[in-house]
Structure to design on (231 residues):
């Protein structure tokens, strides 16, 4: 495999499996994995825990923006090789995956100042290249010059079923209908927000992974990686 170090941007809809793809590709290539969605979830968790989101689900924009200097996010690799999100020194990996965060993350992510702050942080993480980052605007805003861009999609029902199973496996008490409603709602907000809306970059390779196994997906990604590296 070439020694060339590139940036790999994987964008896509909620629960499309892009984080799993990114983690597995990073492991296979020896690259660093950066979960940009976890960063937005961490900000959302902070806002929820500090009463910055109203009962209607809408954030107090001014209060969230004012709190940004007090929000510090990092990632710590665990003994099993997994990566946990740290919020102000606390491991919040489990908490940020709960439905209460999922239901609030899109409105928080749509706040321009939040996006600007996290994009700057993400860009600093990619200065040394050799990273795989997934999210909503990695190939369009964060790293528009990334050497490899993938845009992932699957039907809302397929994505909801994946998310539902993942949450049940973690012991969450949720219904499929609630998860599907959340997926559809997030699709709408992510695609229509004024600041960095979710869209496929012109030079991104589209992947519908609805009917792909993890092994088939891994093989497809590795081939695209080799092509991007000139192998």
């Amino acid at each position: 495999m070439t020694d060339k170090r590139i940036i790999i941007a994987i964008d896509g809809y909620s629960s499309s499996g892009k984080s799993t793809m990114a983690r597995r590709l990073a492991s296979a290539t020896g690259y660093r994995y950066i979960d940009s969605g976890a960063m937005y979830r961490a900000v959302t968790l902070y806002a929820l825990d500090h009463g910055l989101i109203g009962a209607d689900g809408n954030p107090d924009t001014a209060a969230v923006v004012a709190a940004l200097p007090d929000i510090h996010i990092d990632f710590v690799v665990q003994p099993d090789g997994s990566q946990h999100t740290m919020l102000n020194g606390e491991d919040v990996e489990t908490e940020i995956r709960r439905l209460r965060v999922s239901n609030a993350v899109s409105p928080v992510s749509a706040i321009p100042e939040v996006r600007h702050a996290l994009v700057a942080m993400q860009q600093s993480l990619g200065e040394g290249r050799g990273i795989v980052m997934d999210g909503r605007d990695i190939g369009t805003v964060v790293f528009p010059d990334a050497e490899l861009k993938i845009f992932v999609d699957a039907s809302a029902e397929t994505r909801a079923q994946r998310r539902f199973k993942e949450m049940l496996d973690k012991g969450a008490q949720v219904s499929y209908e609630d998860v599907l409603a959340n997926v559809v709602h997030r699709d709408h907000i992510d695609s229509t927000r004024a600041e960095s809306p979710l869209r496929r970059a012109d030079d991104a390779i589209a992947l519908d992974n609805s009917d792909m196994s993890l092994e088939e997906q891994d093989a497809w990604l590795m081939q695209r990686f080799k092509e991007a590296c000139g192998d």
